């Protein structure tokens, strides 16, 4: 499995399809971090929203880096599609974690702000929640599920927009609470309670992607 993850990571880096969403994340976080945009929880909420968009894009890019022929060869070599899909999820998650670290650290480096003990944990939970939803959206909108790129893009835009703007969705609920408070300790219970829901959505998306891809192959 480790060798397969290394192969997927090397293929992703060589393909360079991850660069566009990563650069978009740097640009978005740089703009939010470099301005006096208020207390740190609100900044982290904005960065987490940007992360949701970019991780969705990154996941779709990681899964699409191999064409169907090369993926079929990889599946045979790995003795099944489960490991191949798991490796793609691990690589996407590693990239999401890297972006999360940047989203948490850049606001502190670019614009000095008062920092409390709860700011970083709350920000980390918000980023991880959005990363989980981004991974899930990227999976169900990838080429394994939606073959036509135009339809996949429309589906991804719909899911991301719904998650960010629909009242009651976990990301939207957390964003509103973070934007309306200057005390991150108040939102820690909510953030901690929503993260397992995000992981459950990711698990369901992974299962759905596997089932659809196996039937189509």
From TrEMBL:
Keywords: Membrane, Transmembrane, Transmembrane helix. It comes from Actinokineospora terrae. The chain crosses the membrane at residues 18-35, 41-63, 84-104, 124-146, 151-167, 187-212. This is ABC-2 type transport system permease protein. It comes from the Bacteria.
């Amino acid at each position: 499995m480790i060798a397969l993850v290394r192969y997927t990571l090397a293929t992703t880096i060589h393909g360079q399809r991850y660069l566009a969403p990563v650069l978009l994340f740097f640009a978005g976080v740089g703009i939010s971090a470099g301005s006096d945009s208020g207390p740190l929880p609100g900044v982290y909420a904005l960065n987490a929203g940007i992360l949701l968009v970019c991780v969705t894009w990154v996941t779709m890019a990681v899964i699409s880096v191999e064409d169907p022929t090369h993926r079929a060869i990889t599946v045979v070599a790995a003795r099944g599609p489960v490991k191949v899909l798991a490796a793609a999820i691990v690589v996407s998650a590693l990239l999401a974690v890297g972006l999360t670290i940047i989203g948490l650290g850049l606001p502190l480096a670019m614009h000095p702000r008062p920092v409390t003990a709860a700011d970083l944990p709350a920000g980390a939970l918000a980023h991880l929640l959005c990363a989980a939803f981004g991974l899930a959206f990227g999976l169900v909108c990838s080429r394994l599920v939606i073959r036509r790129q135009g339809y996949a893009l429309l589906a991804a835009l719909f899911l991301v927009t719904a998650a960010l703007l629909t009242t009651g969705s976990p990301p939207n609920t957390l964003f509103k609470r973070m934007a309306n408070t200057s005390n991150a300790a108040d939102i820690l219970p909510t953030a901690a309670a929503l993260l397992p829901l995000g992981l459950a959505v990711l698990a369901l998306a992974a299962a759905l992607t596997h089932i659809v891809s196996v039937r189509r192959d």
